[in-house]
Amino acid sequence: RKEVEQDPGPFNVPEGATVAFNCTYSNSASQSFFWYRQDCRKEPKLLMSVYSSGNEDGRFTAQLNRASQYISLLIRDSKLSDSATYLCVVNPGAGGGNKLTFGTGTQLKVEL
Amino acid sequence: GAVVSQHPSWVICKSGTSVKIECRSLDFQATTMFWYRQFPKQSLMLMATSNEGSKATYEQGVEKDKFLINHASLTLSTLTVTSAHPEDSSFYICSASGPGYTEAFFGQGTRLTVV
């Protein structure tokens, strides 16, 4: 089993749609969780951290379920500029020394 | 967030030559730096972890004699791809972390093409 698994994608959605991505992780002791966004041929950029209580940043909502080892990202009212690959990222914590583990990414294409 | 600068952005080199990539943390002390490689349509794969002043720890399957990592200061780490071959062509990205940070900050990446 991969350490971080994501929906395979790609997701092609019309502008204005709501889309959700899922991710599961295998290390139950993992400490920190993130969603990164990567545009084609660019470095990943932090989109948002993920907390058990859930967190929202504008049109983006992230949720963590530690019991199920499951992370989600919801994008509302999607824009053309949201087209990118979304990476689920897990940090095992102090013992792992901030060694981030990346999922394979889910590609989102927002169309007119 | 903190700033990490990576150079060069892209490089084309001949097979058999060596290429050095630099990764600098501009506004924080990077006690740990990570080097990743990403092939087309694949995710980032960790190559090695380096802590300032000590030898890098390489992931399984990564040749330490081919990918030389130096992390001699709290603001600079370098990756040298020695005797590069076409199969080493890839997108190399560094990230850095330091005290007080739970996430890592990425450099802009270096696209290496070996011809």
Account of the 3D structure:
The complex is a heterodimer of chains A (112) and B (115). With 112 residues, chain A is mainly beta. Chain A is built from no helices and 11 strands. In chain A, the strands form 2 sheets. In chain A, strands 2, 4, 5, 9, 10 and 11 form a 6-stranded mixed beta sheet that branches. In chain A, strands 1-3-8-7-6 form a 5-stranded antiparallel beta sheet, with no helix packed on it. The mean pLDDT of chain A is 89. Chain B is mostly beta strands. Chain B is 0% helix and 51% strand. Chain B is built from no helices and 11 strands. In chain B, strands 2, 4, 5, 6, 9, 10 and 11 form a 7-stranded mixed beta sheet that branches. Chain B has a 4-stranded antiparallel beta sheet with strand order 1-3-8-7, with no helix packed on it. In chain B, a hairpin with a 7-residue loop joins β9 and β10. Chain B is globular. Classes of the chains: A mainly beta (112), B mainly beta (115). Chains A and B meet through β5 and β10 of A and β5, β9 and β10 of B.
Summarize this structure as a short list of keywords or feature phrases.
heterodimer, A: 112 residues, mainly beta, 6-stranded mixed β-sheet, 5-stranded antiparallel β-sheet, globular, B: mainly beta, 4-stranded antiparallel β-sheet, 11 strands, 0% helix
Summary, kept brief:
Chain A has strands spanning 4-6, 11-14, 19-25, 32-38, 45-50, 55-57, 60-65, 70-75, 84-91, 101-102, 106-111. Chain A is mainly β and 112 residues long.
Write the layout of secondary structure elements.
The complex is a heterodimer of chains A (112) and B (115).
Chain A: E1 4-6, E2 11-14, E3 19-25, E4 32-38, E5 45-50, E6 55-57, E7 60-65, E8 70-75, E9 84-91, E10 101-102, E11 106-111
Parallel strand pairs in A: 2-11
Antiparallel strand pairs in A: 1-3, 3-8, 4-5, 4-9, 6-7, 7-8, 9-10, 9-11
Chain B: E1 4-7, E2 10-13, E3 19-25, E4 32-38, E5 45-51, E6 57-58, E7 67-73, E8 76-81, E9 90-97, E10 105-106, E11 110-114
Parallel strand pairs in B: 2-11
Antiparallel strand pairs in B: 1-3, 3-8, 4-5, 4-9, 5-6, 7-8, 9-10, 9-11
